[in-house]
Amino acid sequence: MSCNQPNNKQKENKDSVANPLRVDVIANNEVQHLIDSFVKAYEQRNDAAVNQLIHPDLGLTIIYRPGVADTFTKIETFDFKKPIPAYYAYPEAKSSYNLTFDKLPDYDCATEKWNKVGLYCDTTVRPVQLSQIVAFELEFEPHKYAKEQITEIQKSEKDSYRVILTGENPLVFHLQKYNDNWYVTVLDRAYGGCDA
């Protein structure tokens, strides 16, 4: 239960939804530039460079796992010295991989290995992790989120893609198209970890 990782077929249906923007994204060098810029800024632990890739209206949502279930919080600016959650420092990430537009790698908690290694962005699906977290939390706290918050999350996911850099300390984040430009909007600190 602590792994909380469904099999590949369930995962594909559960964590993503088909996305019609595939051709537009692959043809758009802006997406590749944003991914490369974010990975580089994160590797260099450069707060200023990371924050330039975050739109002030969108902020950055951090997904993390304080126990068995994932949750998230939204911040306006990113700071390596102020991790979320505070007890879990942002680990180093290293990449020598070129970006590949392909199906995202899966992490297997039983073997503690990725099914493939590299830097991947899947432009055929959109992430729905935040909607899943909201749905789960609403089961226990029916009034935790306003209808407007839920609608905003669902709308943002429709314009987003998920990126995974595999490794001992994976870097998992989402990109969102907003006002005809792409920004980093989510940092997923929960995926690729199997502790509860």
How would you describe this protein?
It is a single chain. This protein has 196 residues and is α+β, with helices and mostly antiparallel strands. The chain is built from six helices and eleven strands. The protein has a seven-stranded mixed sheet, with helices on both faces. Strand 2 (60-64) and strand 3 form a beta hairpin. It is globular. The model is unreliable at 1-13 (pLDDT under 50).
User: Over the alpha carbons, how many angstroms does the gyration radius reach?
Assistant: 16 Å
Q: Please state roughly what percent of the residues sit in beta strands, choosing from under 5%, 5-15%, 15-25%, 25-35%, 35-45% or over 45%.
A: 25-35%
Count of alpha and pi helical runs:
6
Overall helicity:
25-40%
Q: Overall pLDDT, averaged?
A: 87
Strand order within the widest sheet?
3-2-11-10-9-7-4
Tally the beta strands: 11
SSE run: HEHHHEEEEEEEHHEEE
* Structural class estimated from helices and strands: alpha+beta
For the biggest sheet, the summary is:
7 strands, mixed
Terminal Cα span:
8 Å
Low-confidence parts, pLDDT < 50 over ≥5 residues? 1-13
Shape: globular
